[in-house]
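Page 42, continued from yesterday. The earlier attempt failed because a stray header line got pasted into the input along with the sequence. Redoing it now with the clean sequence only.
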Amino acid sequence: MQEISKGANVSLTALSEDAGAVVVSLGWTSATGAGDADVSVLLLDENGKIRSENDFYFYNNPAAADGSVQLLGKTPTSNGDEDRISVDLTAVPQDVTRIVVAASQYGGARFGDLDDLRMTVADRSGEPLVGYSIEDAGVETAFIFGELYRRGEDWKFRAVGQGYETGLAGLATDFGIDVDEDADEPPASAAAPGGSAEPTPATATADVVAAVAVAVVPEEGAAPVAVAVAAAEVVEAVGTAVPAQTRGRSPRTTKKKVTLPKVAKKSLAENDSWRTARLFPVPSLKSDKEREVRATSVLLSVMAQVPELGRRLTAGFGAPAGRMQTFTEVPLPHGDTPKRPDGVIRVERAGKLWTALVETKTHGNPLKDEQVQQYMDIAARRGYEAVITLSNDVALDGSPVVDVKIDGRRKHKVSLWHLSWAEVAHQAQMLIRHEGVGNAAHAWLLQELLEYLQHENSGCHGFQNMGPAWVPVRKGIEDETISPDDVRAVDVVESWERLIRQVCLRLGGELGQKALPVQRTRRDSDPRARRVAAASALCADGRLTAELRVDGTSSVIAVTADLRTGKVRTSVDIPAPEGSYPLATAKRLLRVLAEAPADLHVQSLVEGENGPRGTLERLRPEPGDLLPKDGSAPTGFRLSLIKGMGNTRGNAESGFIRGVDDAVDRFYQGVVAHLAAVEARGGRRG
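This time it went through. Structure tokens are written below.
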């Protein structure tokens, strides 16, 4: 990560090839633990002003309708907070030239009371690109940390560090936002006894009416009843009283995001044989064709009706933010026989159309190169922008899901993209469980979609088969007859990488945090060469290895599948705190792991070497058994769980894929989650 100083700037595209979307983080610490600040984002035109009040994003207006800006909320750190903002630079309107990232405080608090003020920018994969620390904060109550701005086709980041003693009102006014100066000072008649500033129902209702006037702007030609419904939705969302925390900011209110609880309401059924009525029923699906037709129609219809999902699934494929319509089984001319792609997605923005053809496979069926090639040719002739393949398979860098040829003589280029059913389920779960959608109906639609995808008959279960090379390679390793350069081992390594990516998707959807594989090689290294080296190591020692990290934790989870012993090991290394006594460190570690599984293996590390080890069950009464007999102080500890990995190549209950997924889930929930909780509370894990 590159560090820059106040006033400096750097090109994001020069730092990463994947800077089309970034995550901006603002962090601070507080000695008392009470310090806090509210983040805000402003989109500015070439005159340095907002185009409308909709260009001001803050805690009560956290996301742009086009997906360009989304406030992701606070993540606790050891003694402070980190506030994260997702910015999709490809979706930012062309007339926006600057994106200002700021924060503000209230109630007499000053930024000089906070420590370690810092802003970082990471790329789409979470890789930190650039960081900037503010060291001269004083009496300011609002601060511009930095800004993203256009230079031609590129985006750059500038470290600003400009403070305002007049708070958010002073900052906002500079950028063309009208702030109600009296909003923080209610009229005398509204003051409660003792001088409290609680609004009366009358003033609160007036604020709601003002909010509706700001939030509900009818589209040209919209029917009056549509405007009335939209206004009613806003009133229902904000209630009959405006929270006191609005603090005079404009717009005052916005519709709250809707999420659904993970635990379902108590059923009114008499017994378990009663089945809840589902919007998308699946028990009758018998053939692969039925599954493909139903799955395509279900997904595309929900994408069109729930803008958050449609935008999220297509933004990475180059689609603009706009009005989306979807179609199925569309006949398109191709030689003597018209072809019917499974689906078509069209997005309209400023009078221009973006079109993608969709080819779907379910139940583990492979995509056909010839069929996808035909759709690429049709798209090129008709001026369409993309072909999207959708299947249980998971795409890997440098490893195409289908093999198609691009005719370089054609002026119109068509992009080929792949989407896994596991990715669709992940995005739906992130929206309805963690990030929220615009209204309750959209949340319910996403819940029905997720129920459909997870049903055993849908065929939309993500990566489920280690491939034809799995059984012979595993048998060759068990018998010690496999050749060091067996090309089938490369196929097994690719399947292993797909499995780990899918495990990250599922875990991230459950937690509401990004989970990503950790690559120790250089980012510009050849993926094929990396897999060949991993295949050679697999043939030599019989192990498949991977690492993954969950956003918001410092722990790297190592996963090792030993094909010779038939065991999956999940582990994490944690450092010992400096300056503490070894026995006290061991006792503290066992207290932190009080709720961890009794069969957890704990091993001390001494100067990078393995030291004494034992299970929690044995070590709890005798923590001193973790310490080396020669009196050496442990530099850290390795925590591991070991389980059988399954025999079959598929996703059956006894299968390898299910075994790895369950192992990672059990290790995270039983071990890493406890370490993360202690870390979030400011405790030391050693």
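Notes: The longest helix spans residues 656-680.
Reminder to self: strip header lines before submitting.
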